[in-house]
Each structure stands twice: as structure tokens, then as C-alpha cells.
Amino acid sequence: MDCCGLSSLISGGSELETNNSHDVSITIREAQLHDIKTLTEVLTLSFHPAKGWFSFLQPILKLGVYEDLRSRLRQTIPYYCCLVAVEVKSTPQQTQEKVIGTIELSVKSGFNYHYLYISNLAVMESHRRQGIAKQLLQKCETIAVKWGYRTLNLHVLDNNYAAKKLYLSNGYQISETDITWPNLLIFRSQRLSLQKQIQTDV
Asked: What is the share, in percent, of the chain residues with pLDDT greater than 70?
């Protein structure tokens, strides 16, 4: 599936990391329908870890994530792309792929304008702090420029320190704090709007 005509853009120079034996690499490509099951695992474990009473809700949460993904990937949506980071293990006998991360990029509508929005950035816990999230963000920048955009937008919770550090260290700046009375009354973390201006050589 190449809903946005991005096959050459995504696959070109996609090898990110290779170990000393040259049999394991990380590549980024557009998500395929056969990735949905593994993508569901990555997203569910990242955003809804099985802790306490959440473990009883996981089957329901997984089903919801699965159906949402399947709906998006089966449609041809203009200016929408779901990317996956894939660990590729090669031996003389076979090549195995494992989805270890993902990110989605889409156009949202504001008041008389459109903007590019990043969502669902997730990396399996076993593969974090290896630069994979940074590579997924950088690939979104490449696609944004290809689509004619120079600004990327996303949200993060103020108390999600790891994610906030990742975005700020990659050039995103806080543009707005989404203050809601329910959150203030029960002392919940606020949602921050972040934005990045993409620098190009042109």
C-alpha cells in the first residue's frame, strides 16, 4: 500500500542501525495491512500498559486500537501516512521483520487553515533510547516538506517528561497550553501544544 505515493521517499536511505555482524537493521517504511496486529500491540502497550485494573481493560482497548488502525489503513486518505520502524533480522536462511515503533502524520483543519499533525508516536519499551523515535520524527519532516508544509504540530502531556524532552531536544517549541477546568479541579496534567518550524536548505 502506497496511499500517498511515498514508496521511494520512505524506503530511500531507510537503514538506521546495523550491528557488528550486519544481520540486524532498523528500517522505516509505510505501514501495511499485515502490520496491524503488531502495531496494535505497540500502541496498546505504550499508551495503555497492563498495570493494575488496566489489565482487565486491555482486551477492549486492543480491539478499539485494532479497529481504528484497520479503518485508517484500508482507506485512501489524502495527506495521511502511518509509518513503522521495523527491526529486520537476516540470516542465510531467512529474513524476519518485527514492528517496533510507529508514528502517524495527517492534515488537520483549523479556522480557515490546515496544518500537519503528528500523533501516535510509540516505540516498544525494549527498543527505546536507541534513536528510533528521533528517526520517525525526522522522516515526518521529510514527508512534510514533500507535501509542501514547513510546520509540524503535536500534543504532549506536561507530566510526560520523557516525551517532552524528546520533542524539545528535536526542535519543537511549546506554543500553547490547553487549560481545561476539569483538569485544574482534579489536578490533572495539562496538555501542551508543540510546534516545529522545519528548516530547509532552499
From this structure: 81
